[in-house]
Write a structure and sequence with these properties.
This protein is an all-alpha fold. The protein has 5 helices and no strands.
């Protein structure tokens, strides 16, 4: 389904720039945000409640991101193989 959304120009430019830096499309980013919102994982909902809850949610998200980065950053090759490949 296609939808037209009126966004402030400055906000759209920031989203577009960050998406481009991450190699993603605006569509991908939008879908992810809608899915998070529907799942109730947005920080704005938490921010309206207890500040301690907001801090806990923020920290949990950072921990999730750290685990994801660590998972993606692991090179399954042995160190010797990596070094030999970089020499070439």
């Amino acid at each position: 389904m296609k939808a037209t959304i009126d966004l402030p120009d400055a906000l759209y430019r920031q989203v577009k720039a960050r998406a481009a830096m991450e190699g993603r499309s605006i569509r991908e980013v939008s879908i992810e945000l809608y899915e998070q919102w529907l799942a109730g994982r947005t920080t704005s909902a938490v921010q309206r409640s207890d500040p301690a809850e907001a801090a806990g949610a923020w920290l949990s998200r950072w921990e999730e991101l750290g685990k994801e980065i660590a998972r993606r950053g692991v090179d399954p090759r042995p160190t010797r193989e990596i070094l030999l490949a970089e020499r070439r």
